[in-house]
Amino acid sequence: MIDSSPRPLPAERVLEIAAPMLDAVGGNWQMTDGPMLRSGSMGIRLREPDSEDYRHLDLEILLNADRADVPTLTDCTMGLAQDPVDAARQAIQAFIDTCLVTALEMVERQGRLASHFGSAEPGGFPGWHAIVGGVTGWSVDGSPAKQQWFVDEMPWSALAPVIATGLDRPHLNGIRLLVGQGGDFTECEVRINGHRHEPSEKALAALDWPRTAQFGLARTFMLLVGPDTDHH
């Protein structure tokens, strides 16, 4: 049987699509060898995908592309469109709105791109300074209920004791949170530095987020910078 689904776009084509979208947020992103997009010392490249779906992208942020010892941030994202270029744009926009803004905000520290939470504040993560990106998502019926739940409840605080057991870096950890559910189907995902953390996923699934008859999805990204020295 012939597989008629579109082929994944080459990495260089995805980055060409991404460059003007990244420029709109901040920086001057230029293509370099790798392929990689660079703005100053920061770089963005595609990783080998962990899914065969052509709409799925695995992206990596190099906080300092000139130094291999500096930690990187990884995120996976997906578009919905059937056209590969449109799907890539959707996936990149979700990556920008949730993940990339936390890295840029860590550099800017102006509160322009993402939200800052001290460890003792509502929405904080004990022991760490949290930088939380936007919440993106979609639903079959157009309801933003799950996205609004993330905004209102800031569930990373309730999940902090469980997430903390999976933190494997001393100073910088990237956390991706996702809730997808419709009817009897539920998919809760927590990735710590790119790797799924099952105890956190079970804890997220048990929280009181809105259950709906039709499928809806919400996701966000949190950068933990530590140890937190903000004791205001």
| Chain-averaged pLDDT | 93
For the secondary structure, the number of strands is 12
Structural class category? alpha+beta
Strand proportion: 25-35%
What does the largest sheet look like? 7 strands, antiparallel
Describe the structure.
- This protein is an alpha+beta fold.
- 28% of the residues lie in helices and 29% in strands.
- It has five helices and twelve strands.
- It has helices spanning 11-25, 84-108, 145-153, 156-163, 198-205; strands at residues 30-32, 36-39, 42-46, 56-62, 72-78, 115-117, 129-132, 136-139, 172-182, 185-192, 195-196, 216-225.
- The strands form two sheets. Strands 6, 7, 8, 9, 10, 11 and 12 form a seven-stranded antiparallel beta sheet that branches.
- Helix 1 crosses helix 2 (84-108).
- The longest helix has 25 residues, at 84-108.
- The chain is globular, with a radius of gyration of 17 Å.
- 38% of the residues are buried.
- The model has no long low-confidence stretch (mean pLDDT 93).
Task: Provide a concise account of the structure shown.
The protein is α+β, with helices and mostly antiparallel strands and 232 residues long.
Notable features of this structure?
alpha+beta, globular, 5 helices, 7-stranded antiparallel β-sheet, 5-stranded antiparallel β-sheet, single chain, 232 residues
Ordered list of secondary-structure elements with their pairings:
Elements: H1 11-25, E1 30-32, E2 36-39, E3 42-46, E4 56-62, E5 72-78, H2 84-108, E6 115-117, E7 129-132, E8 136-139, H3 145-153, H4 156-163, E9 172-182, E10 185-192, E11 195-196, H5 198-205, E12 216-225
Antiparallel strand pairs: 1-2, 2-3, 3-4, 4-5, 6-7, 7-12, 8-12, 9-10, 9-12, 10-11
